[in-house]
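Q: Here's a chain of 308 amino acids. Please give me its 3D structure as tokens.
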Amino acid sequence: MRAVGAAPGLLAGADLTTGRAAFIERAQTRGDLFVEQPYDLYSEANQETWRRLYRALAGKWERHAHPRFLDGVARLGLDPDRIPRLRDVNRFLEPLSGFRARAVSGYVPAYLFFDCLRRREFPTTITVRDGDRLDYLPEPDIFHDLAGHVPMHTDPAFADVLVRFGDAARTAALRARDGDCRSVESALRALARFFWFTIEFGLMRRPGGDGLCAYGSGLLSSAGEIGHALESPSVQRVPFQLEWVVNQGFEIDSLQPLLFVVDSFRHLEREVRRLERWLGEGRLDNVAPGEPAVSREDLRSFLDAGLQ
């Protein structure tokens, strides 16, 4: 029940901060992965965190983001001052690409995540990072997902890449029917590395060929990462090579020292198609070990999907 006289976002005990949101804990205890966005639970501190993040990144987007990302921000009408309601985002998003943001209570097992992309659904975290740690993000939050990912989903060509990525995961799952955990784990690691170095931390040549820009959400949702990625002399920025990408480990808790550059969204789609073909041919059954670690839950999600 709403506290008497409470305004939206100011309910007694309201808070959707990552790691300490009672609403999320209750949903996870019930086993509810897909949830509704309880907008009234955002505290004023949560809203202020969104404002601070948006202010920190708006100027960097203008300098470093791919033009289609900037178009997406404008088309979605993202409010610099208030956390968006998913229903409002979807009202603009679905007519553009068929994608919709779907609220989740936390971690989505790998196969289910990729299969959501195949069905043009984007699992969207609804909690907000702690305002004391704005630029360190050990796990997704609503700013990463809505301000980092979703503007790119307004572009039909990029949306089709995500769907194709879901198809690639489906190909990997179908090959899991023989129960060979080692090859499935290898394929999952290859998928995760490809996603990391493209959808999360991808760089692209600017339209017209004048320099580089960011299209990866991990760059676009971090004021520290985006400048480092495109300006630091210590970063290796190398042309995309599928053989290297699927065998290259990465770390999630430090600024990225190595990034891959694609020429265009058409180039990216070709590489995703090649990834899917290699998965089907078994060419990714033995990629290099190392990060990311493959959890039992993620492995099980692929094995179970292969049996369906």
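Q: Can you summarize the key feature?
A: Confidence is low (pLDDT under 50) at residues 1-10.
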